[in-house]
Amino acid sequence: FQNFELEEGEHACRRRTYQRHPVSNRATPVGGNRHVLYASYLSQNQQNYRSFSASSDQERIEAANRIIHGLPRCVKIVEVGPRDGLQNEKNTVPTPVKIELIKRLVTSGLSVVEATSFVSPKWVPQLADAKDVMEVVRNITGVSFPVLTPNLKGFEAAAAAGAKEVAIFASASEAFSKSNINCSIKESLVRYNDVALAAQKREIPVRGYVSCVVGCPVEGSVPPSNVAYVAKELYDMGCYEVSLGDTIGVGTPGTVVPMLEAVMSVVPVEKLAVHFHDTYGQSLSNILVSLQMGISVVDSSVAGLGGCPYAQGASGNVATEDVVYMLNGLGIKTGVDLSKVIAAGEFICKHLGRQSGSKAATALSKVTASASKL
Amino acid sequence: AETRWCSCDLHFSGCGDPRDLFVGFKRARVCCPIPRQALGRGLRRIGFEFIHRSRMSSLEEPLGLGDLPKLSINRLGRFCQSACRSTADDRSTGNYTPSNSGNNQTLFHSTSHSWHLQGQYTDSSCNGVDMEFRTLPQKVSWDLPRFVKVVEVGPRDGLQNEKNIVPTSVKIELIHKLVASGLSVVEATSFVSPRWVPQLADAKDVLEGIQHAPNVRFPVLTPNLRGFEAAVAAGAKEVAVFASASESFSKSNINCTIEESLARYRDVTSAAKKHGIRIRGYVSCVVGCPVEGAVHPSKVAYVAKELYDMGCVEISLGDTIGVGTPGRVVPMLEAVMAVVPADKLAVHFHDTYGQALANILVSLQMGIGVVDSSVSGLGGCPYAKGATGNVATEDVVYMLHGLGIETNVDLGKLMDAGDYICKHLDRPSGSKTATALCRLTA
């Protein structure tokens, strides 16, 4: 067994001590013809492992340990509603409403709120007021407000407007890169390198996004090595964090884990974030396995704002309220007050004239007081 | 016209039921309904169709680096430690072939290859070379069942919550469609007093109207001996009883204490044994109760054990109000699994707070191999009006297939069943997977 003892400092929010299982295959006959096999690096011969019947206390405790006790103690939530959420809205949301939304999100305890995007209004008219939003928001202290900057021009505009953090995004799928931002992965990375250098000069941190980390609407499945490659490029050019996005929401834990393994072999896990879409309802289980793998930063969008442009009417981002609900239930600290996020979600949904995309928010607003004792 | 492989990977377009599929920005023709699970080859795939532009003879064969989309940046070599020396140029032009030394391990497409074989996955770009790679904190428990039985509760748990009564013929048709999708257990109805559950007053007609298929079971709920006898008279071969882990819920829901309800069920189970009828037990409020709040795992274990001891062949643990998260579910399962064997347990999560799939995932990781769900997420939550209830079968099956777990369920046909009932109820599906997949083809 290898013990990963981690520093238990005063403000340590690291993984707890984790017992790593032996890498060799260990088949333990349990009650007849079932075997316990540890799936780390199994050899070809072990393909036909079967489920185990945890009839012994020891095995059950070990299973529980592996599943929920090795999770990060704290998780940082990166709120992308004002940008990723609102950019997909049919009707443009007025600037004061955006600002009010951001303020309410800040009061809920979120420490990172993606405020807007400095892209050409020709492509994203919903965020044409980026400068105006930024002007107000930059005065709020204690919270980071990354803004998307697809190129140097956007970066300059962002810096001029007072942005103190920027974000860049590259695709792990060549076809998506071409169809989404009109250039190949390489060309986009070259562009971003310019942005990263400029940001470095001004001491502005850069957050990287990788899109289509599991599947691409054009190409289909995306090889984990592509994702690892792009993530590493972004990391090497100076991104302090790389967020891995399942853009069309097709991922399941079966595809997410190999992808994370690939990326984690080239980028330290503390620098990674996950950005799952709930288009197929899979995001919370994907987030859970990511936590089990050691990821401790999760992107989400209040009230599940932001549909999926590739499946009209289908849902997009995972709802922050649902994520916080799960993390609270797991005993993981987020610093976020769920009721205040719900309030922020209610505010924007009232404005948009629609129901919240968050199940937890919907349930909590309808349930009787006694049932919410939990 | 470009040659198109159908997503079943066996045919050119035209092998079966042709459908137009909108993939990305292009309309493409595919020949098989999505996704193809029941091809008998254990093909693992993500649950949306796409056109294979490259030639893939079998999704089970791992793809080599040469099959990667061409990246024009010649920097794949950076993945390698210095020990590994195949030219980056070769890689980028797709000429690279894995060296034949060593294990000849190749890169796997995560979706085309079962994650079971993750053990072969070394550094992606340096094949066949012994090299040191960063040890990953391989924490994830992958002791997952190979096969998961999905118990469909839509016709009972789903429809019993409907405001408007669904006609008997529609119920029967729904059940037939569900069976056609490959589900082997479909909860057909409930023999409770029509005074309490008017939506299922036609229990006898439904049971008598269903075409019985071999290897398909149709459990029916029987809250007491009278209901049991009515069920037997109508031809039921399997019944279900349900007890609460919370005293307050038991009193408010079925008007008696837990002990009283267990006593009733003992009568039912002994009668069932006499008739050779299987019994399935349900425990409700296994995580939280709308009256009491949190429910202690030991209570759940107690009730589960009682049901098991009295003869239930399977105990389904229900998070009735959907408040559970993995943090609560795992200790509850630990407690129950100490007294009931894991292979006799099922999980029945509600998606009221969106937590169901995560809870199902940890249950699988704990060793549970039976999951209850409801087509299209039928069935709201009576304790939070307007909130959702049951987890949608389509979403569950999508996840299970993505995990490489067999279910024998054809997602396309399942979606047809969901479509059918939602059309009748005149409502959108409660399943995100179904919604997304229909929108893709729209």
UniProtKB/TrEMBL annotation, chain A:
Swiss-Prot/TrEMBL GO biological process terms: ketone body biosynthetic process; L-leucine catabolic process
Enzyme Commission no: 4.1.3.4
Pfam families, per the entry: HMGL-like
Domain of life according to the entry: Eukaryota
Alphabetical keyword list: Lyase, Metal-binding
Catalytic activity: (3S)-3-hydroxy-3-methylglutaryl-CoA = acetoacetate + acetyl-CoA
Molecular function per GO: hydroxymethylglutaryl-CoA lyase activity; metal ion binding
Pathway entry: Metabolic intermediate metabolism; (S)-3-hydroxy-3-methylglutaryl-CoA degradation; acetoacetate from (S)-3-hydroxy-3-methylglutaryl-CoA: step 1/1
Enzyme class: lyase
Family per similarity comment: Belongs to the HMG-CoA lyase family.
Name this polypeptide is given: hydroxymethylglutaryl-CoA lyase
Organism: Aegilops tauschii subsp. strangulata
UniProtKB/TrEMBL annotation, chain B:
Domain of life: Eukaryota
Keyword terms: Lyase, Metal-binding
GO molecular function, one term: metal ion binding
GO biological process: ketone body biosynthetic process; L-leucine catabolic process
Catalytic activity: (3S)-3-hydroxy-3-methylglutaryl-CoA = acetoacetate + acetyl-CoA
InterPro entries cross-referenced by the UniProt entry: Aldolase_TIM, HMGL, PYR_CT
Domain spans labelled Pyruvate carboxyltransferase: 148-415
Record-listed E.C. numbers: 4.1.3.4
Annotated pathway: Metabolic intermediate metabolism; (S)-3-hydroxy-3-methylglutaryl-CoA degradation; acetoacetate from (S)-3-hydroxy-3-methylglutaryl-CoA: step 1/1
Enzyme class, broadest EC rank: lyase
NCBIfam families linked: PRK05692.1
Family per record: Belongs to the HMG-CoA lyase family.
Protein's name according to its UniProt entry: hydroxymethylglutaryl-CoA lyase
Species assigned in the record: Aegilops tauschii subsp. strangulata
